[in-house]
């Protein structure tokens, strides 16, 4: 194999694919990136057996071929080459080393045979549709923070995507919860999405989608089955296994009759929560909200370091109420909101609170209270 590529093109593709590779893999071939050169282009592919990312890059091919070399090492080398450089990759038929040369720099890298590289893309997909990159990114961004990190409840370690009927219209819905908070985002279901199975996309795949959707004006091709999902974003193809589990009936925890409405400006509220929680301990992140007509007092008490209070003017006309929340969870939710106004719908100190974004009717958040 002998291939010449622009350093910038190679680096861009390696940036996309090398992130999938675990730095400490017990299976040597999984530390490598597959490079296959044919027909005027080079395809790079990396996998961890659950997730696979591949991308095609233009190349001048003198001799076609395929091999695998260490992904992170190759990325680091190309990243450190000067801008505008040309990179030549060459292998000899009977050698176990690939030569990478660029200007006066020369590297020899250990190879493993491409026949050992696993293929994740086998199988057929039952549903296929296209979605605007902007909408896909919105669904993911608005919900990913609520994904559980508790491995024993593995079915919560991702975002649940499914279609449902809402006000006579079919919507594509993303839901994530860790048992303490829940995030839900809707968008109009793309053509072809109706009837798709409910699927749980793993946390790592969600993170890659966020990084790969670079152009919000692009269109993303989505193909899925009960076990796998594939996203085609420009020249990048991401294939992932899905979480094999049943997502809980999340609708049961979304309150329907919370009648106490609190309307507050997002930024002053966020900054006040952040300030008073400075003295909270790592273990006890509770902040108490004391509500009275037109007034909100935020209080944090820490037996080891003291207390803090801050008062805000708010729109609240219901009866007085005291309720506690995890301050970090409040800050996570306020960070997702697109408008300057937050609407809290409360019931009592022991019941879930519904939080809405006044500027985005397609999202809602549920937060469980804490005892304070």
Automatic annotation (TrEMBL):
Residue ranges occupied by any DNA polymerase III beta sliding clamp central domain in the UniProt entry: 131-249
Source superkingdom: Bacteria
CDD domains linked: beta_clamp
GO biological process: DNA strand elongation involved in DNA replication
Domain DNA polymerase III beta sliding clamp N-terminal: 1-120
Pfam families: DNA_pol3_beta, DNA_pol3_beta_2, DNA_pol3_beta_3
Locations listed in the record: Cytoplasm
InterPro entries xrefs: DNA_clamp_sf, DNA_polIII_beta, DNA_polIII_beta_C, DNA_polIII_beta_cen, DNA_polIII_beta_N
UniProt GO MF annotations: 3'-5' exonuclease activity; DNA binding; DNA-directed DNA polymerase activity
Assigned GO CC terms: cytoplasm; DNA polymerase III complex
Signal sequence, start to end: none
Start and end residues of each DNA polymerase III beta sliding clamp C-terminal domain: 252-371
Keywords (A to Z) from UniProt: Cytoplasm, DNA replication, DNA-binding, DNA-directed DNA polymerase, Nucleotidyltransferase, Transferase
Main location group: cytoplasm
Positions of transmembrane segments: none
Keyword Magnesium attributed: no
Family: Belongs to the beta sliding clamp family.
Self-association state and partner proteins as the record states: Forms a ring-shaped head-to-tail homodimer around DNA.
Function: Confers DNA tethering and processivity to DNA polymerases and other proteins. Acts as a clamp, forming a ring around DNA (a reaction catalyzed by the clamp-loading complex) which diffuses in an ATP-independent manner freely and bidirectionally along dsDNA. Initially characterized for its ability to contact the catalytic subunit of DNA polymerase III (Pol III), a complex, multichain enzyme responsible for most of the replicative synthesis in bacteria; Pol III exhibits 3'-5' exonuclease proofreading activity.
Matches recorded under PANTHER family: BETA SLIDING CLAMP, DNA POLYMERASE III SUBUNIT BETA
Protein name, per record: Beta sliding clamp
The organism of origin for this protein: Rhodobium orientis
High-level lineage: Bacteria, Pseudomonadati, Pseudomonadota, Alphaproteobacteria, Hyphomicrobiales
């Amino acid at each position: 194999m002998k291939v010449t590529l622009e350093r910038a093109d190679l680096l861009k593709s390696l940036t996309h694919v090398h992130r999938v590779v675990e730095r400490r893999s017990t299976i040597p071939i999984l530390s490598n990136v597959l490079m296959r050169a044919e027909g005027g282009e080079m395809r790079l592919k990396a996998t961890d057996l659950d997730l696979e990312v591949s991308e095609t890059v233009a190349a001048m091919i003198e001799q076609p071929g395929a091999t695998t070399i260490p992904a992170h090492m190759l990325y680091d080398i190309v990243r450190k080459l000067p801008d505008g450089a040309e990179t030549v990759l060459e292998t000899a038929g009977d050698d176990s080393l690939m030569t990478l040369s660029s200007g006066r720099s020369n590297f020899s890298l250990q190879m493993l045979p491409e026949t050992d590289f696993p293929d994740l893309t086998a199988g057929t997909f039952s549903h296929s549709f296209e979605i605007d990159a902007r909408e896909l990114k919105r669904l993911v961004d608005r919900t990913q923070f609520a994904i559980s990190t508790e491995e024993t409840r593995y079915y919560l370690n991702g975002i649940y995507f499914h279609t449902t009927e809402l006000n006579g219209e079919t919507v594509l819905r993303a839901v994530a919860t860790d048992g303490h908070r829940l995030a839900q985002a809707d968008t109009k279901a793309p053509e072809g999405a109706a009837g798709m199975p409910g699927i749980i996309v793993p946390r790592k795949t969600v993170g890659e989608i966020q990084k790969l959707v670079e152009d919000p004006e692009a269109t993303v091709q989505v193909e899925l089955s009960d076990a796998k999902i594939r996203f085609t974003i420009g020249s990048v193809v991401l294939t992932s296994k899905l979480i094999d589990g049943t997502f809980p009936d999340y609708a049961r925890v979304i309150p329907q009759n919370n009648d106490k409405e609190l309307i507050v400006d997002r930024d002053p509220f966020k900054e006040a929560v952040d300030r008073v929680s400075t003295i909270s301990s790592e273990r006890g992140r509770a902040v108490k909200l004391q509500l009275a007509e037109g007034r909100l007092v935020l209080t944090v008490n820490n037996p080891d370091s003291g207390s803090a209070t801050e008062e805000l003017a708010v729109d609240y006309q219901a009866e007085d109420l005291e309720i506690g929340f995890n301050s970090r969870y409040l800050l996570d939710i306020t960070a997702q909101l697109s408008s300057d106004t937050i609407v809290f719908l409360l019931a009592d100190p022991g019941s879930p609170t519904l939080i809405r974004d006044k500027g985005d009717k397609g999202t809602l958040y549920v937060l469980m209270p804490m005892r304070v």
